[in-house]
Amino acid sequence: MSSATSASEVGHxxxxxxxxxxxxxxxxxxxxxxxxxQYMHGKRWIVMGILFLMPAGLAILIxxxxxxxxxxxxxxxxxxLLIPQxxxxxxxxxxxxxxxxxxxEEQTITYLLIRPMAKWAIYLVKLLATLTTTVVLTAVLxxxxxxxxYLGRDNQxxxxxxxxxxxxxxxxxxxxxxxxxxxxxxxxxKRVLIxxxxxxVVIEGVLANLPFGIRLATVIYYxxxxxxxxxxxxxxxxxxxxxxxxxxxxxxxxxDPSLLDHPQLCTAVTILLVSSLVFAALAAILCSRxxxxxxxxxxx
Length: 300
Known about the structure:
- The chain is mainly α.
- 71% of the residues lie in helices and 3% in strands.
- The protein has one domain (3-289).
- Mean pLDDT is 82; it is low at 1-23.
């Protein structure tokens, strides 16, 4: 083994930290913490920070230019159209796509494979770190957006706080589903970014907004069902009170006011959770059988 390789093994933080773990549980815990630390540094974190400030900035801009817009309408526009449609799939794709590819590109996957950890365990730990990071970021994003929308408005604070907590829960469930799905894609292909963008634009962005059966295969459809059955989206308009969510999400409440043709709340939550577990388990199984090709050290 070359001296350069020996130096990299000694100096690399992943190798130094994992070397200290004598047991698999200790090594896995170290890997989890190292992955979290890795997510908190670099350009990815800066880009995500800028993107996550956009909804709050947009809310402030709209309030400054159109002070008469109802807070509920602004909330629906940003919290339930912009964020779930664009930002949540994007943040899930950015973090999930790098779980394994970053390790391969940086030649650190070798240090993980020589430790007392199964491949499937490595994947699940990195997925857990990814879910932790994205859920925390989603909670911060949603909270900042609600503050920008309702701060200084004559609203009941307790009601707004409850809506914020419910929205955080819905967004967290969505980003978990996206991360598990994109994580599976990352195991199947190196072009996960391209596949993820196509899926987000075509499936979640276009087909999910059409009143056809294909939307039953989308994440955003079930999150909308959960939001519709737990939150009130009726606001006053010049034509009277209207349910803006029903119109925007293609729910025909005139012929089906209780949405009996759509899943119930418990069913929608169960579908997202079970599908996430299935995606995670399938990806872990495929990862355990996957051969990771890395650059071998040159001999003297």
